[in-house]
Write a structure and sequence with these properties.
By secondary structure, this protein is an all-beta fold. 0% of the residues lie in helices and 57% in strands.
Length: 117
């Protein structure tokens, strides 16, 4: 079992930046791939970024590539999402999730990000 807690969300103006953190406890964090997802009001949850357990490979949704950066610190059991050049369409609840093989098995409760125009 892995417990995940997101933090760092908030209200920011368009063009601004936020850094989300996801702290993990429980089983060995470094053995899991980690992902960030978001869900906008009235829309389905969508993947934003993913990073391998080793941190050697990352994935980004096309809508955030070049603006967002996912990273992890296995010594601190934490994964980050640095979000720059934020747009109103980035508004939503952001979730982190722990991935084993191809399945995201554990999820956090989410943190709200609101980008004003």
């Amino acid at each position: 079992q892995v417990q995940l807690v997101e933090s760092g969300g908030g209200l920011v103006e368009a063009g601004g930046s936020l850094r989300l953190s996801c702290s993990a406890s429980g089983r060995t964090f470094s053995s899991y791939g980690m992902g960030w997802f978001r869900q906008a009001p009235g829309k389905e949850r969508e993947p934003v970024a993913d990073i391998r357990a080793s941190g050697t490979s990352t994935y980004y949704a096309a809508s955030v590539r070049g603006r967002f950066t996912i990273s992890r610190d296995n010594a601190k059991n934490t994964v980050y999402l640095q979000m720059n050049s934020l747009k109103p369409e980035d508004t939503g609840v952001y979730y982190c999730a722990a991935r084993e093989d191809s399945e995201y098995k554990f999820w956090g409760q989410g943190t709200q990000v609101t980008v004003s125009s």
